[in-house]
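Section: Multi-chain targets

For targets with more than one molecule, the full set of components is provided together so that the structure can be written out for the assembly as a whole rather than chain by chain. Components appear in the order listed by the source. The example entry contains two components.
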Amino acid sequence: MPLIDLANPSRFLKLADSTIPWLSGLTVLAFAFGIEQAMLAPEDYQQGATVKIMFLHVPSAWLGMLAWGVMTVAALGTLVWRHPLADVTAKAAAPIGAAFTLLCLITGSLWGRPEWGTYWVWDARLTSELILFLLYLAVIALWHTVDDPSRAARAAAILTLVGAIDLPIVKFSVDWWNTLHQGSSVFRIGGSTIDPSILTPLLTMAGAFTLLFVTLLVAAMRNEILRRRVRTLHLLQASAVS
Amino acid sequence: MRPLAAILVRDMRIAVRVGGGALMGVLFFLVVVALTPFAVGPDLALLKRIGPAILWLAALLASLLALDRLFASDHEDGSLDLILTGHAPLELVVAMKGLAHWLTTGLPLVIVAPLIGLFLNIDAPAEGALVLTLLVGTPALTFIGLIGAAISVTLRRGGLLLAIIVLPLTVPVLIFGVAAANAAITGPVPFGTPFTILCALTLMSVVVGPFAAAAALRQEIE
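Its structure, encoded as tokens over all components, is:
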């Protein structure tokens, strides 16, 4: 189905209603598989069992960045093509991305305590990730401050595009600066440096997280469309009374 | 060029004549710096170490002061509509307004910074480096702030939202501004390394800021 067809909210709602049960089921299966693999993965010879935090930490970091990437594409959709679904996507993705970023920060700090001896250091990777979280909160605040949804969408779109500068900084912070956080080890030139016995569960968990993100996003978009309909009905009702 | 010069002169006049003008920013800067010794104690060695950070934070907060009225007052009295329908490119007009804002809030801070550095026990040679970082870095604060000012232009109480939007974006400027000042005072990194990055950040924000702010204004005012 071409993207333009989804501009009709009713058609999107129909698609969402029929795909959400499948997506939810797939997500549960993927998590069952991923968690089982993560449990069976060998412990690190230095870190022991704490290495398993990675199976939550790394996918949530990726998803926190992916969500902003989705919002950036949606922002272009709002400003360039005025696609009605783009506004809804951007608004729905923001809280989900914020949640993943927070999860990344929390798991990272719980992992840092036994391995680095501290919950938090102001190194480039941690700081840029924290800024990403603050940017999420700023975008969410903007969405809530402007009453008119389409005007809020355009303001949030510009902030999203400007904030996208932070994405490469998060990704390459460990290469540009000498950080306590370890360097890139999965997506790097010359191949991954992680042993397959740990890399496979990691990628499985990343797949499960991505499915979770898509499911939550589609559900949140459906809710947002319904919320807008309710808003329009309220406005109609109010104008009928007066 | 004439409309742009007119905007620059007009904005500077407004900034100087309305609401206490440029002195308010300087006063705010002074108060924030003066509060710090009360909070951390009058330990001169400590103040010397954290002095650049305090000056930079105070400059960051002071540059936010006039931002929320930068486009909002023009929007309310209708002059923004005139600017939007005028012949001058909006991006350049926005850049001019940014320049006027920096000349009236950023530059005064840079001028009084040596005096305030004395309170924080910063030596004369280090003082020069610190003032240089402020001179180069404060335009970046203004031009990043333009984006937030434009996004929140139609909001009645946009001030707080403006701070939430702008402050995370200014973090790199703060990091490299303070790093350059510290490099000059204590080393071991040569002053030039963080300082050139600070210059790059300012140049980048001078390019990105007006375009993003102009785009936001076009979207907001319809």
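The radius of gyration of chain B is 18 Å.
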